[in-house]
């Protein structure tokens, strides 16, 4: 499998602030690659360097076998970019926006119409952008990044501020984009998004990549407890203490009891013996647990 993106020891500082500190990774052709990190981790700066929007202070970047900096016009038709804050042309309809973006790459109106259908906005073709919902505007933004049929697509937090339904609709679109053979690079704050969509993820913090692996491999590598939840009120205090003794911590919020344990089979067997399986839920480690383990739990503004 050929490599679409190769980043080697890339560094970028703004005065005393180190934004990217020796980042290296590769993205294979057709891969869905995620970059995760808290605010200020260096995700967007890294992406902008790969896209050729910023010059690195040191290191090297190859995109489709070429250097994106200085601004490489040969790469522009081969990549699509959806920024955190895409600005549309004023007073144009959704179709007019796409036709205008397409014309910059020599693409005709028929392709714009096809892209409207791909992103589910055919019925909004005549609607001006300011009248679109947040999810519709994000889909139009992605359509603008795809209208010239790029080989590599960069998406910087495409589902930020969307409601759950709009997010899931956009996920379906992103799966379709990747399923057509395009390489997709995504930055996101949503762990469930990365876990569902990405073949591999890189977790960044303080300008460094901490780990790169498929989401499932990262989760398997985390030594985390299992959380077992059942409905409250079905266990006598003595039975509850006996089940938890030596294998679990318990928390009773009045509605449910949660056992936090590294020996789930023992707790589950005891609950079954007491016929206390009402509301049973078992949750192992998630990508969010990995993320917090690597980056910490303090609030990042």
From TrEMBL:
Molecular function per GO:
ATP binding; ATP hydrolysis activity
The family database entries (SMART domains) matched by this protein are listed as:
AAA
Q: Which GO terms describe its biological process?
A: response to antibiotic
Q: How does it sit in the membrane?
A: Peripheral membrane protein
Alphabetized UniProt keyword annotations? Antibiotic resistance, ATP-binding, Cell membrane, Membrane, Nucleotide-binding, Translocase, Transport
Q: Which residues form the ABC transporter domain?
A: 5-231
- A cellular component annotation (GO) from this entry: plasma membrane
Q: Which CDD domains match?
A: ABC_DR_subfamily_A (cd03230)
Q: Which Pfam families match?
A: ABC_tran (PF00005)
Q: Where in the cell is it found?
A: Cell membrane
Keyword Cytoplasm attributed:
no
Q: Does the keyword Zinc apply?
A: no
Q: Which SUPFAM superfamilies match?
A: P-loop containing nucleoside triphosphate hydrolases
Give the family this protein belongs to, as stated in its UniProt record: Belongs to the ABC transporter superfamily.
Q: What's this protein's name? A: ABC-2 type transport system ATP-binding protein
